[in-house]
Amino acid sequence: MYFISSVKEIQDLNPFIVIGGGGGGEKFSNFEGIETLGFVDDDESKHGKKFGKYTISKSLLDLIENTDAKSVAIMLPIGAEGAALKYAVQAIDNNKNVVCSFRSLSIEENSALLNFAKEKNVVIKEISPRVDVIDKLFGISHDKCCEILPKISYKPKATVVFIGGTSQECGKRTTTRLLGEEAIKRGLKVGTISTDEMGLEWPVDFNFRAGSLSAMDVPSAILQSFKVIEEEKNPDIIFIEGQSSLTEIGNPHPRGLSASILIGANPDFTIVCHRPNHPFREPRGINDEIKAIEAIEPTEVIGLSINLRNETDLSPEDFEKEYNLPAVDMKNGGASKLLDAILEKIDN
After folding, report:
1. In which domain of life is the source organism classified (predicted)?
2. Domains of the chain with bracketed CATH
């Protein structure tokens, strides 16, 4: 088996040259009992700079020639598959053992490397996502790691408005859609993103089920959506639908998803949706959700969308008075008032 299950297996391959002068390389070199003789990175801006007690090199072959390393650890991120494969071939060709990360070089998907290592009589091992452990716990798991998207950074030029909520099924999708419609009626250029497979209605530009992605991939998917929308439409404002809630009681599973979407969106402003007397969810409430949202991201909650489907005695005005925020019923013409509140904040 080429999966590593303990640090002892790595220690037996000491000492190492580490490929990757970043977080992955640092984590690997910090394993107990690991001897590191140098670092290599393709990023020219890192060449010649100190990384721990070593200077980052641009050439693996130079370090192989000038050190007594027995092994090469390839700790590159997702998206660096080509570089990882290059370094693995160089290492094996020079009779060095290889330890790689599943993030950039899956041995399962590069079986030719196993044959090459066998031919050269060297060891090749992978630090895997250990989905086999999940299979042992549940009797079912993904066949392989589902984290596949590259990590990107992007700051949209448009104002971003996040539509969050106190629970599932509280009106986030409807609020997002109707705000988009209202903004278009007023002549604004609008981007609208749904993070749910049910977000099929106009004016949604992109819809995808964020819950089907790794939590690590959700921010990348959102940032790439922003980037493509801005390239195609140059919008004045982007509305993005959240999922579930950060604070809902009784169902913790989607709450991490909610945080991932919020973090990826990094919104300028936020609208919170709430459904009083929800028949099958247990929201903690508006105050708790506002505190949680504003604690995670430097955004401002500027309005409330109240779903009155299960409430006959209260009105949006009651919530407005209690929370000192504009509050509307989107199914009864509330989009205009809520958009006014958003545009007023943008203008200020």
Report:
1. Archaea
2. 7-138 (3.40.50.720), 159-347 (3.40.50.300)
Question: What is the distance in angstroms between the CA of the first residue and the CA of the last residue of the chain?
Answer: 61
Q: How far apart are the C-alpha atoms of 7 and 33, rounded to whole Å? A: 8
| Cα torsion angle, 20, 22, 27, 31, sign | positive
| Identity of residue 252 | P
Name the residue among 72, 332, 309 with its Cα closest to residue 167.
Answer: 309
The pLDDT tens digits for 260-317 are 999 999 999 999 999 999 999 999 999 999 999 999 999 999 999 999 999 999 999 9
Quick count: other Cβ atoms within 10 Å of Cβ 114?
A: 13
pLDDT tens string 332-347: 999 999 999 999 999 9
Beta-carbon contacts of 216 under 8 Å, excluding residues fewer than 6 positions away, are: 147, 149
pTM for this structure? 0.85
The 237-241 sheet, strands edge to edge: 206-207, 190-194, 237-241, 159-165, 269-274, 300-306, 327-328
**Are 88 and 100 within 8 A, CB to CB?**
yes
Coil, helix or strand at residue 40: strand
What distances in angstroms separate CA 110 from CA 4, 40, 100, one per listed residue?
Answer: 17, 22, 12
pLDDT exceeds cutoff 70 at 1: no
